[in-house]
Amino acid sequence: MSEEIKLNAANQELLKQVNDLYPEGSVFVQFHGEKSGYVRHDQATQKTLPGGLFIIVTDLTEPNYTASHELLHLLMLLRGFPQIFFQLSLGDSRLDEQMMIMSTDLYNVAIHRVVVAEQRKHGLINDQVEAEYLKGIEHTLTPEDKADDEEKTLRLLTLLDALVFYGDHLTQYEAQLKAKYPTALAAAQKMYQQLAEKPIQSPFDMRRSIVKTYSLFDQQMQEWGLPALHNNEYTTLSPVLSDRQLRLSLRQVFEIYHSDMKERGTSKRAYVGLRRSDGQNSFTMPAPNPESPEEFKRLYAQPVKEFLEQHSIPYIVRK
């Protein structure tokens, strides 16, 4: 067992905030592992055990940075920020797995805008963490060469997340990133510029930022002649609705369409509820019974709130 690690004051405060909101049992932070010398966002895991949730930091390079990262993710979830769900299947488990990983990584890019701002506010990111984060990028990616390679998508994802992490501190690291990954960095910077235009101050802003991240990523994939991910259809993102929208009829806010994808875990074609304003998958549902035009008319006429609650679909009320 390595040296004993204690949570610093900022993390103890975060842990207290998490525990005040956590519904069942308590949340604990444990440290097990070695020091790799670099920082990445896969250096912790979560386990639910009797009595609560355990955040286990598995790399001890920057234990307080890593613990705070996990605690802030959890805190945002507990405070009602939008979540993603995977309820559809492309009919190929390997492909589904890849899609879920990439969708989650893009979702995290948007979430990290808030997480990193909070970490910086609490003094949890210093020059040493920034240098180790750069080592983490170099550990993850190979440098670009002239040949079209398999790593384009991973580079874009990794560097987009890096731009969120470095923010105004990028100038110290930009030359090194540019030397190794010029194409991916330029594409990530173009995306980041558009994402950073609007601040994130509420769950509604966060949802808009997630939808935009999905859409800008697909644009870049297509510019490179690579297949778009279509997370607007594949990934269910919890809707954020005002009281007024909850009173409107379903038809005014959502469009239900018969997807080519299957319901996860069954072989039935799924129905997907797309938000009319941005085309984002907000819920999925089995075929109505009976599957008739009359039944759809009835569903579409229902108030949004009644429909969502009847079908146990999670949503967030816009303040």
From TrEMBL:
It comes from Limosilactobacillus antri DSM 16041. It comes from the Bacteria. This is IpaB/EvcA family protein.
